[in-house]
Inverse folding.
């Protein structure tokens, strides 16, 4: 099988699918879509980070005048919206796309074209929302968009229209992707991969998809009410008509709190992959890690009103939501301890990925503790809407989610591209991030407790806030520097990084058994899975024989299903890589890899198609047409909605009537 | 791993600097800190905060301690054997489920007790204050002080952005919003409670552990463009001073009331207890004499700490001939205010024509220490510019532009006399009048 062609494996994937921009526009390959998500989200991270740096320049000293009050309000609105919807969620989606099929031993997701559609909707939705900057009408109602401030009476510009329509568009993307991944995980696992053998990342991703499916309809309803109010004059949030502004708050936070777990659980999953690999030990308490993830997600729907302790719900509601909120600390704490004991007794290798993962464990703990402090309503009254809570959720989302995601990027970049990120630059990136994050967000605890409200564009000297704000600003600049180093590392390593080989980290799960980057069909032979850690079973069978994850009586190397021999893990390894097996020092060897194409192997692959791109574009334009209502061009709005809806339907029809892939032989 | 050394040294240096900076910060003055324990509310919160921070610190030290120990103890060394594959330990896992539960019960019990204590109905003899949130200023009404008119009861003590509280007496705030959601917060005394449109919220506290002092308040819920400029002052004063202040507030301002025909025609003068001066408005000297007689009518400015004096810089390019301020004509200013555009939005007790409630009540505006949502000090220099071009001084403000020659960014028009504009000299007269409204 080893033909003599000398080409690095990363180049191979590009030659099988056409390279060039057209191939990216038409791709339905989950790995390429994952890469699109990754780089789009990183680009928005640069935008959202820039917004944060401008705000920190404004607040660096008392009565800063870098930007006006109105621009500052737009900045913090867009910073929050961007970081949540355009950065952390899509970064997670990048990993879902890339990893879920690889981790469960599948050739693609269940609906490859729907997957492409999700990405394009995300891209167009994010562009739509940010185009508002060009008109000077960026959203200005805060990421939480409390009514009645977002109603026409108090916000007659297009700002809120961009925001609510943009969120609706992005919701379509998230929901389509969620159904896709649920179907994929339920139906497309390789033989032997039962639920309790799934890698922890796939488990957390699985839970997140249910959160998305259950939480997004709620914000959709809330936004539809707002759209009807703003466009058609209904009275869901019209105060003069007697509306109750708490309707929006309840709907928003029923979505908004599960959203927090949508943002953090994927990072938890990545950390649960990284820590075992670099400890050379399996995850401690796998079932408990799974159940605690499910429990966090379940409880996450019962705590929304802890965002509303100050609105005057009364002592009973405050007490109930206080208790449910405290309960969530338990499964979260269990995860922290299980991670620590995963490392306990291991051989810890401090790669950059490992450092980021450990930092999540260390710093998320701070966010968790300040979270419990917020769960006590009387204390929360003094803390909420101050910089204390800004510190809290940045410790959760930056020191939590982003650390996990950065660790995930260092860990999986070789699988994405075939090359390792530079550890040397990575170390600078890590330490500057670590210093920057703590220097930015730790002092905010103090500025909040010393009375500084959040979302203010200016403050007076003499309140004792100057030193903390100065520290936060310097920290933000350090983070910006770290971000630039990160970008440089990615840019440089894509072409000049070390060749990674199949398995640069000696990791246990399926995705490391195939070449880096994987061929478009992923697995030449679908692997048969007999344990949670298939690659470790091969390398260290003596260590994994008597472990609870392998069913008693499973034959490790020769699996039958229904009396019929379906293959073995070794078959897959032999087929997938010429070197047959795992070579930790694959840097030389893999440059000689040559893989068969899908055609040669007779594996039917989905046709590339541009149709999801057009459907997504026309759907976005259909939503955008509604803006014309507020420019007093109702006829144009109606024409636009109908016209773009027809175009969308036309391309959707063409999509649904064209075959996904060649007929099976 | 030699390539780690440089960034790691950087981290150590940064940590040292951060600690030094934090220590330096701790030595500073923190007038708005929530830890001053000046009210029952803040003492309850302070107790709860201590429970939380002690428990949290213990958890933090424990978790980070084990983590750091693990990182040091089990870092990879050459020649180490493969670690044993441990998959879990039921006893341990039950332990770290149950122990946090116990800690949470420890926190939960005082939490619920404090919830029911602080959210109970305020004692019946409390001072009642009605707080009305506006974009972007605060209206404070004292509904226990009213007069009866044909139209019903009318509050006689209505102020803006300045709150007077008697020391040692429970004050019960009733919170309303006139427009969007705001949040009422005096960090050093207690709170916060959202001011929710179409809802009535309550908040009470007893400032019993304070002297005569000034406290900063702020809107804590994002409420639009000038959210940051929706601040206010709370003054704690002795009961005697408070009574004196109330008595004074219930009357029209010293020097405002005249028996001029244009103003006294309406027999339903709002303030029944008024003892107006006679004839023409008194001179500044006479006003001062009357103010002195009235006892405590305003918190003395020289006792306000520096942290309580607004420092918002004036916008560049906004000019005013300050020399005119010395020669402002009170009488002329009064005519401009009580018959001009001001009556469209403002109230002045004792002036029949001025009963609008869009903007702050001007009855005793001269005795207030700040203007514009506690964004600027209330002195002739700022007041003059405020009247001339409020829009340049406070983003999004509802107060129109009055200075002739100014360009109003809201109406997109230059201001002329016909549009109700004022010259600098006229503004100086208005300032003289408003300043006299002690």
């Amino acid at each position: 099988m080893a033909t003599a062609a000398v080409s690095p494996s990363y180049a191979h994937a590009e030659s099988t699918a056409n390279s060039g921009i057209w191939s990216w526009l038409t791709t339905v390959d989950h790995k390429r879509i994952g890469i699109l998500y990754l780089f789009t989200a990183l680009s928005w991270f640069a935008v959202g980070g820039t917004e944060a740096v401008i705000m920190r320049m404004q607040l660096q000293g008392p009565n800063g005048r870098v930007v006006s009050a109105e621009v500052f309000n737009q900045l913090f609105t867009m910073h929050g919206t961007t970081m949540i919807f355009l950065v952390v969620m899509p970064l997670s989606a990048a990993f879902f796309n890339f990893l879920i099929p690889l981790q469960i031993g599948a050739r693609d997701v269940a609906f490859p074209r729907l997957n492409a559609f999700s990405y394009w909707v995300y891209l167009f939705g994010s562009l739509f929302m940010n185009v508002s900057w060009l008109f000077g009408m960026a959203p200005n109602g805060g990421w939480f968009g409390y009514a009645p401030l977002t109603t026409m009476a108090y916000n007659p510009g297009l700002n809120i229209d961009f925001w609510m329509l943009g969120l609706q568009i992005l919701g379509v993307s998230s929901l389509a992707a969620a159904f896709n991944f649920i179907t994929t995980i339920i139906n497309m696992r390789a033989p032997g991969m039962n639920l309790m053998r799934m890698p922890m990342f796939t488990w957390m991703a699985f839970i997140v998809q249910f959160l998305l499916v259950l939480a997004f309809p709620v914000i959709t309803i809330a936004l539809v009410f707002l759209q009807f109010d703003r466009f058609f004059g209904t009275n869901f949030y019209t105060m003069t008509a007697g509306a109750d502004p708490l309707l929006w708050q309840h709907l928003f936070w029923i979505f908004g709190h599960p959203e927090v777990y949508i943002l953090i659980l994927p990072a938890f999953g990545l950390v649960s992959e990284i820590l075992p690999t670099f400890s050379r030990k399996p995850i401690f308490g796998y079932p408990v890690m799974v159940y605690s993830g499910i429990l966090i997600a379940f409880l996450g729907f019962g705590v929304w009103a802890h965002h509303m302790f100050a609105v005057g719900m009364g002592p009973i509601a405050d007490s109930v939501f206080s208790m449910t909120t405290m309960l969530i600390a338990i499964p979260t704490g269990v995860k922290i301890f299980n991670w620590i004991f995963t490392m306990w007794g291991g051989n810890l290798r401090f790669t950059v990925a490992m450092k980021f993962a450990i930092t999540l464990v260390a710093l998320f703990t701070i966010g968790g503790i300040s979270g419990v402090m917020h769960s006590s309503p009387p204390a929360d009254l003094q803390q909420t809407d101050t910089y204390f809570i800004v510190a809290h959720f940045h410790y959760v989302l930056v020191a939590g989610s982003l650390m996990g995601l950065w660790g995930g990027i260092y860990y999986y970049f070789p699988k994405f591209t075939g090359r390792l990120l530079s550890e040397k630059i990575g170390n600078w990136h890590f330490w500057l991030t670590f210093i920057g994050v703590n220097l930015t967000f730790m002092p905010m605890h103090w500025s909040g407790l010393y009375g500084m409200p959040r979302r203010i564009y200016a403050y007076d000297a003499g309140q004792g806030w100057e030193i903390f704000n100065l520290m936060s600003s310097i920290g933000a600049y350090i983070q910006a520097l770290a971000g630039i180093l990160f970008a440089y590392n990615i840019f440089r390593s894509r072409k000049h990084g070390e060749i990674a080989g199949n398995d640069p980290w000696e990791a246990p799960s399926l995705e490391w058994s195939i070449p880096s980057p994987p061929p478009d069909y992923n697995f030449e032979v679908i692997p048969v899975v007999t344990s949670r850690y298939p690659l470790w079973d091969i390398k260290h069978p003596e260590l994994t024989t008597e472990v609870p994850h392998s069913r008693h009586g499973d034959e490790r190397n020769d699996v039958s299903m229904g009396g019929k021999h379906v293959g073995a893990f070794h078959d897959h390894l032999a087929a997938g890589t010429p070197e047959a097996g795992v070579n930790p020092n694959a840097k030389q060897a893999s440059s000689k890899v040559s893989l068969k194409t899908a055609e040669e192997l007779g594996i039917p692959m989905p046709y590339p198609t541009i149709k999801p791109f057009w459907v997504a574009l026309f759907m976005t334009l259909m939503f955008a047409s509604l803006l014309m209502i507020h420019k007093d061009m109702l006829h144009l709005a109606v024409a636009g909605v109908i016209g773009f809806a027809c175009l969308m339907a036309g391309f959707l029809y063409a999509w649904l009537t064209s075959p996904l892939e060649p007929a099976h032989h | 791993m030699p390539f780690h050394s440089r960034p790691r040294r950087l981290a150590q240096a940064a940590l040292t600097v951060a600690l030094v900076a934090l220590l330096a910060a701790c030595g500073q003055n923190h007038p708005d800190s929530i830890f001053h324990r000046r009210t029952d509310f803040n003492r309850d919160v302070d107790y709860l905060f201590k429970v939380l921070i002690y428990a949290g610190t213990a958890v933090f030290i424990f978790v980070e301690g084990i983590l750091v120990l693990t990182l040091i103890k089990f870092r990879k060394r050459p020649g180490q054997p493969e670690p044993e594959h441990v998959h879990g330990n039921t006893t341990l896992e039950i332990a770290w489920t149950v122990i946090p539960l116990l800690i949470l019960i420890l926190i939960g019990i005082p939490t619920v007790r404090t919830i029911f204590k602080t959210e109970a109905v305020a004692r019946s003899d409390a001072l009642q204050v009605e707080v009305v949130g506006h974009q972007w200023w605060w209206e404070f009404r004292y509904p226990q002080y009213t007069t009866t008119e044909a139209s019903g009861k009318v509050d006689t003590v209505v102020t803006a952005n300045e709150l007077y509280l008697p020391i040692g007496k429970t004050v019960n705030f009733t919170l309303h919003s006139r427009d969007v959601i705001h949040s009422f917060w005096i960090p050093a005394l207690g709170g916060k409670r959202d001011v929710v449109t179409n809802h009535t919220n309550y908040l009470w506290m007893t400032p019993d552990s304070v002297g005569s002092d000034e406290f900063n308040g702020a809107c804590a819920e994002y409420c639009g463009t000038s959210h940051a400029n929706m601040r206010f002052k709370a003054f704690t004063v002795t009961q005697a001073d408070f009574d004196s202040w109330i008595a004074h507030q219930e009357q029209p301002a010293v020097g405002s009331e005249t028996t001029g025909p244009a103003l006294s025609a309406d027999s339903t003068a709002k303030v029944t207890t008024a003892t107006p001066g006679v004839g023409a408005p008194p001179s500044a000297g006479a006003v001062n004499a009357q103010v002195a007689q009235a006892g405590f009518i305003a918190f003395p400015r020289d006792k306000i700490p520096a942290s309580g004096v607004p420092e918002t810089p004036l916008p560049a390019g906004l000019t005013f001939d300050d020399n005119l301020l010395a020669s402002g004509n009170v009488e002329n200013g009064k005519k401009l205010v009580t018959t001009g555009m001001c009556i469209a939005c403002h109230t002045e007790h004792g002036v029949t024509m001025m009963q609008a409630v869009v903007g702050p009540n001007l009855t005793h505006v001269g005795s207030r220490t700040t203007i514009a949502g506690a964004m600027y000090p209330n002195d002739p220099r700022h007041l003059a510019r405020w009247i001339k071009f409020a829009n340049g001084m406070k983003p999004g403000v509802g107060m129109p532009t009055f200075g002739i020659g100014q360009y109003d960014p809201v109406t997109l028009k230059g201001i002329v006399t016909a549009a109700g504009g004022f010259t600098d000299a006229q503004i100086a007269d208005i300032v003289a009048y408003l300043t006299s409204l002690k």
